[in-house]
Amino acid sequence: MQALNSLQRYSPQMLGLLRIVTALIFIAHGTQKLFGFPVAPASGLPAAFTLFWFGAILEAFGGLLLLVGFLTRPVAFILAGEMAYAYWMFHAPRSLYPIANGGDAAILYCFIFLYLVVAGAGAWSVDNRSKA
């Protein structure tokens, strides 16, 4: 047990890694909707200035800010709200169960972003560049 407790010293690096990996995957959701990259969505690209287009902007550019760890807490708060909205408006009406309504990713993103609001950016971030 002592060996596992000694891993605590790596918490800032693991938090930074969680932020970076989450941001990279989240950015892909935005670029898919905005540019059809890496693959176009089955429903096609959203029209400019629609709800889905604004969501894609948040995903791509909010994800980019999280990737570099800049303004992590406020950006993560906004993105958590976006994911909560996406879940309750688009997934939950289909079914009570996330595995059945396709909303499990939205829930995970929401709670990871809420964690980043509380925990901050972790290592390797613009927000913490003076603490390195």
UniProtKB/TrEMBL annotation:
- Record flagged with keyword Ribonucleoprotein: no
Query: Is Transmembrane helix one of the keywords UniProt gives this record?
Result: yes
Q: Where in the cell is it found?
A: Cell membrane
Q: Which UniProt keywords apply?
A: Cell membrane, Membrane, Transmembrane, Transmembrane helix
Q: Kindly give the Pfam families that the UniProt entry links to this protein.
A: DoxX
TM ranges:
46-68, 75-93, 105-126
Q: Any one cellular component term from GO for this entry?
A: plasma membrane
**Where this protein primarily resides, as one coarse class?**
membrane
Q: Domain of life of the organism in this record? A: Bacteria
Classify the protein's membrane topology as the record does: Multi-pass membrane protein
Query: Which family does this protein fall into?
Result: Belongs to the DoxX family.
Recorded protein name is: DoxX family protein
Q: Which organism is it from?
A: Bosea vaviloviae
